[in-house]
Structure formats: C-alpha cells, structure tokens
Amino acid sequence: MNDAAHLPRRRFLQLGAAVGGGLLLGIRLPALGEEKPAGSIGAPPEGTLAFFVRIDPDGAVTIGSPQPEMGQGVKTSLPMLIAEELDVDWARVRVAQMPMGIQRNTEGQMSWLHVGQGAGGSTSIASSWQPLREAGATARQLLTQAAANRWQVDIGSLSTEPGAVVHAGGNRRLGYGELAAEAARLPLPTAPPPLKAPGEFRIIGTPRPVVDAEDIVTGRARYGIDARLPGQVYAVIERCPWLDGRLLTVDDKAARAVPGVIDIVLIEGPAAGEPYTVLASGVAVVASSTWAAERGRRALNIRWDRGPHAKESSAGLRRRMEEALAASDGQVVLDEGDVEQAFAGASDSVEASYYVPYVAHATLEPQCCLVEVREDGATVIGPIQMPAAASRMVHQLTGLDRLSIEVQMTRLGGGFGRRLTVDYVAEATLIAQQVKRPVKLQWNRRDDLHHDFYRPGGLQQLRAALNDKGEVTAWRQRLASPSKYYRRDGVAEDGMWESELYPDDPPRRLVPHLRLEYFAMQSGMPRGSWRAPAHCANAFAVQSFIDELAHRVNADPLQFQLRLLGEPREFPYEQHGGPIFDTGRLAGVLRLAAERADWGSPMPAGSGRGIAGHFTFGGYCAYVVEVTVTDGKLRVDRVVGALDCGLAVNPNHVKAQMESGIHDGLSTALRLRITLQDGRVQQDNFDSYPLGSLADAPRVVETYLVDSGAAPSGVGEPPIPPLAPALTNAIFAATGQRIRELPLIDHIDLA
C-alpha cells in the first residue's frame, strides 16, 4: 500500500486557479482502492483520495467531500481537518459532495482522477488525519507567501487568523479571498509546513453539527429514493424467493394490462456457487409510477424452480454446526504453546458454547438506484457506498468505457455494510439497457429482508483452563459458521476463516497456551459485512465467557478482566484496525465505564450490572449495562459507555455513533434474527423483524470519551460489539440465568 508520505510532492498536491480568480487545491492520499473486493473489510489498498479546497475572491471557502455520507458524519469531520490547518472561519465553509472521478493512466489502467471514494471499515478519519491536515497547512502557507510577496516582507513575520493573513509589525491584514489568485500561481512548497499542536486547535475536537443538518430536518436532503432524471420510468422486481432458485415460466398478460405498465424484463440470477452480480433471478415490471409497477408485479403468474437449497433451514444449519464441533478438530488458525498439556495439568476447566443467528441490514432506505444507459455513456445516481464498484459493474454489463460512466452519490439512508455490494446497481442497469430509458429501481421492505448479504450466524465453543490462583492458563476457541467470503473470487477454501476470526484479538498473548479452530459451514445464504463484521459474534462469545470464568473463581468480573489484560502493553495486531493492540487502552475504557456506572455499589433484588469491552477497527469500547428483571420480564435501565478512539475530531459525531451502537447492539441482541425454512427467508417486514423501539431503549444512556492522546481511529463500528455481552452478563448478575444465545427474546420476556 502506498503512503502519502512516500508520494512525490507534486503528485500529492495539485495547485491551480479556480474560475473567477480563486485558489484551487487538489490533494492525493491513500484510500479505498479500485480493486478491493466488494464487501470486504481490511486495510485500504493502494489508491488515492482527493479533496478540493477552493477559495473564492470574496473569501468563501468550499471544501469537497468525496466519501459517501451515510450518517457516520464524514461530510462534516473530514472537511474540519482541512479547515483547521487552513485557519478559516468554520461558519464560512461550504461543503460539497463530490461525484466519482476516475481516469485512465498511461498503462491503460483505471485510477482515480482526483479522489478515491468509498467508505467501510471505520477508516475515513484515521486514513485522512495526517494528509488532510498537511493539505490545509499547505494552502495556508501559499496564502501567507502571497501576502509576504505583496507586502515585501519576510514570511516569518506573518501569521494567520481565521480567513486572513496578518502582519503584526505593520498592522496590516489581507483576507484569503484577496490573496487567492496570487496564491494559485505560486509553486508548491517542497515539504509539508508545520502542523498545529493539539493545544492550538480551534475546530478539531470541538462539537459541530452536521453541515447539512437543516436540510435533513426540513426534508431537503437528497437520498437515493429522491433521485430524478427527465423521462425516467420506475421498476420493481419479483425475485425468486428460494436461494439460487430459477425462473421456469412467467405469464405476464395480466401485468401488462395494468394501466401504466410499460414493459416486463427478465433478470437472470447467478449460477449456484458463482460470484454474485445480482442476488436472484427475477421478473422486473417497468411502469410510469412505482405504484403501477407494484400493481403489475402483483398480477404476475410465475413458476419457480426452487433450486439446490430448497431443503435448507436455520434449524438444520444449527444441527450441522453442533455436529461439526462434536465430531472432529477444525482448521487450526492459531496454535500457540501446548493447549492439550495445559488442560491436562489444570486445576479446573470451564467450557461453554455461544450462538448468534443470521441478521439482516434493514437499512431504513431500502435499496434503490437510478440508471440511464445511452450509446455514449451511462449515469448512475443512488445511495452508493462503493462508486468504483458501481462503475465497474455498469462497464461489465454494458461494455461502455468507464470514463463515460458517471456515478453520483446521494446521501445514504443507512449502510451498515449492505451497500458495499452493488447488486441493486446491476439490476437497474440490466433493466435500463432493455427499455432504453432512465430507470428508477425501487426495492420494498420485503425485498430488502428476503434478498440481503446477511451477517453470518455461528456457533462458538470455548474452553479455558484455570490454575489454583484462578488465572487462565489455556484457551481453546472453535467456531463453526458460514464464511462471508463465500462465492468470492480469489478466496481459497482454507482462507474462509479470515472473515470470521481475528487471531490477534484478546486473549492472544494474554494466556500462554491458545488454539483457534474454524469449521467452514456450507449454506446457500448470501453473506456479507454487517457493522463490525465478525467482531459482534466474537465479542459476545469471548466477553460472556470471561464473565463466566470470573464467577467460576469467585472474582469480580471487572477485576478479573483487568488482571487478564495485565500491565499496559502494545502487542502486534495484523488484522484490520492494527498495527497494534494496546492492553492499557482497553483497560482504560473498562475502568472509566465502571467508575461512571458506580460499579460495585449495591443493586436492588432483581437488578444487576454487567460489563464488557472490546477492540474493533482501532477503537476501544466498553459498556456497563444495568437491568431489572421483574416477574420474569427484562427491562434495560441504564447503559454507560466509554470509548477511546484517539482524538475525537467532532465529539458530537463520536457520541452519536456511540448512541447508534448502543441502539443497534441492543436491538440486535433483544429481537433480531433471520431464519430460513425450506430454502426461503421467513421474515417479511418489521412486524417479523422488529427493530428496537423506544419501549426497548434504556431509560438512561451515558457516553464518555477517553482522551488518550492517540491519533484518531475508527468510530462507526467499535460501539457495537461489547453491548450484547454486557447485557447478558447483567442478566446473569440479576437472575443467575446465563444466556448464551441470541436473540434474547427466545430466552426471556421483555418488559
């Protein structure tokens, strides 16, 4: 992977004059690369990300935001990095969403024109922290040099204040707008200018509202569902409800007779086991309105071949997981020390199994996309998380030159990993090719729940050895699950574990003997990334088991975990979120959450506290959850969270992500699951897949940020994984009932 520091200076920064005489600065830095497999999570490969800073003669500053905005706040936080070092008045900054830009290099390969665009893995802030600040500082230095040239003074005698260069000795001041044209003609500095010390920050680290908050609350924000093009028509698709089923026959006479119906288009699904283009075979109804298309859809008479997975069920998959774990050893992912000998010599051992189901993304804005395919190119507009993947897909289906394919990203009504894939773009493109008009494809809620890249379910078996001091001396963890790398090009069978286990997670290096095993289960269910992929399942198992071990040796769960973590140390971490894992930072969030929750104070009968912490994608998060169980009914009273994400660029957004994580984590733990029967998903809408409501919400939510002095790291995903184990640990503390399976609704009534 390239690093911005290793790029030639002239490639890193591009300088020019804006129309009307202003300053235009383009920036290049590492970001999500074009060749990243859709849906995968990992460190960003080689690519470039560019922002633009434009300063107009009137002093107005525009900062381009290239990343998709789906509620994570990057449209505000990333421009804040540039604005800080540029030294401008944030109130005068305008932020604009940038369309996708690509170019063909001298070798004929596609690369980013100015900006590498795509969001995933909680990487946006961490990867941009240094380069974007350097870019802002460079623009400020150019403006300062322009003022020095005009006044014929040494640049060292000048300083800046928001939006202006000042000369204290001569009591002179020039606004950036007055200097922009001159600054645009100057050569770029050969080295990055000095950056501000944290104590000098005026913008970074301060709470700021999202830049388009007013548009959101007044209904003016543009989502994919709002996209329009002249002459567009509307499409919906009746997809095969069976996994990898095929269309046998369709009688569309009644559908074509529905007023407003324009055409019927057949969609061919992928062959069983092949990589996905679209998720399922289907019949598209194209009409003058969405309502007419839906009426036409209901009039279709279709016969389906139920395909190779017609007998698959969730219960059957669960049985196969149990049989696999009972029958033999799995693929050994990690084997350190001598686990068998350690168990043989242990004073005590504990074993438990933990299960999580498939879950769906259920974005509030279902999948949708507007595509126009012309002879000279194509236009794609929608809630697109990976614009390069969308561009490649349209090229693959149409043969159009990628330089002729325009991709516009609207605001996304939720992502959570679902829109890392572009099957909905493929569907809209196939329909638009046939009808030769702009096509607005719209999914409904049933479509969205029946056809998803689901978070894999899995069964984990954990066993630990304890010595006579109550210390963990050996750990064996065995996971049976379908891998999300199923049907991915270039992933070998023995690499399926890499999407489901993170070997460098605790307790690695905290216990002397450790073995991880993986059992790749076969399933026809499509799988993909779901907020904090794999970490949610692993944290539930590991943090629940640590609580069990603490109670086994009559230790306080917090003190037991702190003793396991030991003294602050930095360990290598080779998975996404590295390169290090710091035991002290995880201990720090556990201590802070416990302190603010008054851990250890007496609780009334029927009430209890649970604690859990986890490291995800560079961030450290811990929760204390308080519950009450009355007459067998569970109520979540309080959640106290602590997060160490390094410096919080915008504390408003960080706390919002924590609150979002609490809601998502609680909602998923309490009620959510996708089940399969006879090869079909059984959930149709929010009545059978009930997202958390206000009635489920904790009465009190408290969030605290740790100022560790570290550089910023991920925020979008770390707040999810520790919630479920903290909740089940609290239920045990209140009732003595140990719940090792999700969702909780199967095991306890909800108040």
Structure notes:
GO terms for molecular function: oxidoreductase activity. It comes from Parahaliea mediterranea. The protein is of the alpha+beta class. It has three domains: 4-217, 2-Layer Sandwich (Aldehyde Oxidoreductase, domain 4); 224-308 and 367-442, 2-Layer Sandwich (Aldehyde Oxidoreductase, domain 4), CATH 3.30.365.10; 329-359 and 453-750, 2-Layer Sandwich (Aldehyde Oxidoreductase, domain 4), CATH 3.30.365. It is built from 17 helices and 33 strands. The strands form nine sheets. It has a seven-stranded mixed sheet with strand order 13-14-11-21-18-19-20. Strands 1-2-3-4-5 form a five-stranded mixed sheet. A five-stranded mixed sheet has the order 16-24-23-22-17. The model is unreliable at 1-13 and 28-51 (pLDDT under 50).
Tag the structure with descriptive keywords.
disordered N terminus, 751 residues, alpha+beta, single chain, Aldehyde Oxidoreductase, domain 4, globular, five-stranded mixed β-sheet, 25% strand, 3 domains, seven-stranded mixed β-sheet
Topology-level CATH name of the largest domain: Aldehyde Oxidoreductase, domain 4
Q: What is the tally of helical segments?
A: 17
Name the overall outline.
globular
Mean pLDDT: 91
Number of strands: 33
The biggest beta sheet reads: 7 strands, mixed
The fraction of residues in strands falls at 25-35%
Query: What's the CATH class of the largest domain, please?
Result: Alpha Beta
Low-confidence stretches: 1-13, 28-51
Q: Identify the CATH homologous superfamily of the largest domain.
A: Aldehyde oxidase/xanthine dehydrogenase, molybdopterin binding domain
Helix amount: 25-40%
State the secondary-structure class.
alpha+beta
Radius of gyration equals: 27 Å
CATH architecture of the largest domain: 2-Layer Sandwich
For the termini, the CA-CA separation is 51 Å
How is the largest sheet built, in terms of strand order?
13-14-11-21-18-19-20
The number of distinct structural domains comes to 3
